[in-house]
Amino acid sequence: MADYSVEVRIDRLHLLRDHADGPRRWNPVGDAVFERPLVVGTGGLPMEISTSAFADPEVAPMFNREPVDVPAGARPIAVVARRDGEIVAAARGWTADGRPTFVEVVGDPEAERLLLNGATWSSVGRA
């Protein structure tokens, strides 16, 4: 095995918690996608839009505590818009066939269109 090598593509990091709610002992409680966030509004007040499968610990308390029922064949998605590091808006729902569907949007209601665009263009939204 001295000459063994393999190329691996890592596109995200999952954070697992021992005994977290879920069907297994170790369950995902967060993730980070290795892609540049979408930046919109660069001519005025730029907003950074990032996506993941789970709401990060800063965003999760903003959402209703009820879990999202993700349809079969869809994947969960959480989208966050930040301006100067502060959360402006966030949404959660699912994505199927590259199309996001939000079941909850919090923060600036005018940001929903930007959140949808961010979800559509992210690798999480395309997965």
Give a quick precis of the structure.
11% of the residues lie in helices and 42% in strands.
Q: What do you see in this structure?
A:
- With 127 residues, the chain is mainly beta.
- The protein has a domain at 39-126.
- Helices cover 11% and strands 42% of the residues.
- The protein contains 2 helices and 7 strands, in the order βββββββαα.
- It has helices at 112-121, 123-126, and strands spanning 12-18, 26-33, 38-40, 47-52, 75-83, 86-96, 99-107.
- The protein has a 5-stranded antiparallel beta sheet with strand order 3-4-5-6-7.
- β3 (38-40) and β4 form a beta hairpin.
- It is globular, with a radius of gyration of 16 Å.
- The protein starts with 11 loop residues before the first strand and ends with a helix.
